[in-house]
Amino acid sequence: MPSILFVCLGNICRSPLAEAALREEARRRGVDVVVDSAGTGDWHAGEPPDERAIAVAARHGVDIGALRARQVTRADFTRFDHIVALDHENLKNLRRLAPANATAELSLLLDHVPGREGQAVTDPWFGDASGFDVTWAEVTAAARGLVERFGGRGSRD
Ligand code: 4NP
Known about the structure:
- This protein is an alpha/beta fold.
- It has helices at 14-29, 51-59, 76-79, 88-97, 130-149, and strands at 3-8, 34-39, 82-85, 105-108.
């Protein structure tokens, strides 16, 4: 079963939404995956997602209110098959944190969306609520790409 860890800065906006979108897409497509998220920073450790992130997920029928932020650890680099960064800064910090025995494959979230490879998911934290709709669309597109890669059977119920 593939395991995926999504990583942003605070683990309260982008990566919890990516976690929720992948879990939901995998469920709908009948694919078993292990999914988690974390932040490269620790300022929000133990906190639930930002209320605007909770709201956008809820508008799409997904409850993320029980998620709690945590900081990425060195053990994550051997525990997960894939560590997916939401932007270049977080990818750079992950490369710096990676232990010598790291086995996880590192990528950017939008590498999993055809035509958007190499692009960053903009941090919606500083903007207004509409930014979270953009984030939701991006993480949903990436979730589709990841599930395809992991062998989704193609049903869209
Ligand atoms: P995230 O957004 O990395 O998508 O969770 C942020 C949340 C909090 C902060 C920055 C980004 N912060 O500076 O506290």
